[in-house]
Predict the 3D structure of the following.
Amino acid sequence: MHLPCPTCDRTNRVPAQRLLDKARCAACKGPLLPLDRAVPVASAEDFDELARDAAAPVLVDFWAGWCAPCRVVGPELEKVAAARAGALIVAKVDTEALPEVAGRFAVQSIPTMVLLRGGREATRLSGAMPAAAILARLGV
């Protein structure tokens, strides 16, 4: 996985199976892990690694920059990531940049959120909703 540092925005390479560990940015030494924020997925390869190797459930947000409901649910997913840091990984897949990943999940409308457990789809939600509703509907 390629993770941008929340402090200096430099990209750091972190294996998906270590996303629950503690780590610091290689450039600024700011805290990088554990994840308490949504992480943008940079490539199909990063997505595959995350889905296959993550040590926790992964909530994937399929979104696009032009989508107003996606912009509404974005901050709510940040709250979900902060509330479940160390127990849930929130990943963001831009459907414009990675249409092949969205196609694998037959995403027909956005925002769509898919919960992966062990690399397999466990639950799917569509539409904008507050963080509390997302957590309640996912049961995480």
Helices lie at 44-53, 68-83, 99-104, 131-138. The chain has one domain: 35-138. The domain at 35-138 is CATH 3.40.30.10 (Glutaredoxin). The mean pLDDT is 94.
